[in-house]
Design goal:
single chain; 3-stranded antiparallel β-sheet; binds calcium ion
Length: about 140
């Protein structure tokens, strides 16, 4: 769905990515928190719509269950459960993130290299139920 609100969300998101880590650190609050609606360095966002569109949530840590997480930012999908509802992602930072179609790392495994955004393939689109980074936390 393309509407004014979505375009505004997308524009903001792209601008943040283009500005780079230095500007983000300056603009961010003193402590970078997970799931606070700010995509801090080494966080991974899951988005309601493709092409990093719609509402999203930023994750800093492993999530063995996404059925108790919701899209926190404004826009289409805001407040909806993340589990089985994400169409795109933004891996902002140096970590590799692993995504699974099942809870607790079950089902089909995929991985997303550092500093990469994109749309989930058919296998993972609206199917991701748990996520893990390679930082052992
Ligand atoms: Ca954050
Ligand atoms: Ca969770
Ligand atoms: Ca699933």
């Amino acid at each position: 769905m393309k509407n004014t609100a979505l375009r505004r969300t997308l524009g903001t998101f792209v601008a943040l990515g283009a500005l780079g880590a230095g500007v983000l650190v300056t603009a961010a609050p003193a402590s970078a928190a997970s799931k606070d609606g700010h995509l801090d360095y080494n966080e991974f966002s899951l988005n309601w719509e493709d092409t990093q569109g719609g509402a999203w949530t930023d994750f800093q840590y492993d999530e063995s269950l996404l059925n108790n997480d919701r899209f926190v930012t404004p826009g289409p999908g805001s407040g909806a459960v993340v589990d089985n509802n994400s169409e795109s992602y933004f891996n902002f930072g140096s970590r590799t993130w692993y995504v699974y179609t099942g809870a607790e790392a079950k089902g089909v495994e995929g991985w997303i290299p550092a500093d990469l955004m994109g749309n989930f393939s058919t296998t993972f689109k609206n199917q991701v139920s748990s996520i893990y980074n390679n930082d052992a936390n």
